[in-house]
Design a protein that fits this description.
This protein is 6% helix and 32% strand. The protein is mainly beta. The strands form 5 sheets. The protein has a 3-stranded antiparallel beta sheet with strand order 2-1-3, covered by helices on one side. The longest helix has 8 residues, at 27-34. It is elongated, with a radius of gyration of 18 Å.
Length: 125
Amino acid sequence: MAHFALLDNNNRVVQVLVGRDDDDGKEAELTARTGQHYRQTSYNTRGGVHANGGTPLRKNYAGVGFLYDPIRDAFIPPKPFASWVLDEDTCLWNAPVDMPEDEGTGDPPKRYRWDETTTNWVEVE
């Protein structure tokens, strides 16, 4: 199925629509027909990689609140924290400090959350 992101005048995604397989590659026609701005998005694309080995489309599957960047031709998710930095290759946000390597290990498994005040990962008790 083809998926399309409806953009507002600031290139923010306001809705993601599912189209027919026949609509694949027809964003220009959809935009012309409706007078609204659409960009096709791929459900299987994240971080510039297609999950099934296909051709990735626009770095990330669009979601409501994402920004479409026409220069990068990419969908960028909302910035989760002020300190996080955009990875230009994936168009995903990264913490300025790597998550501890023991995440998910142990019994019970260790879990962490981001603490913006300390700009570091904090273990969840």
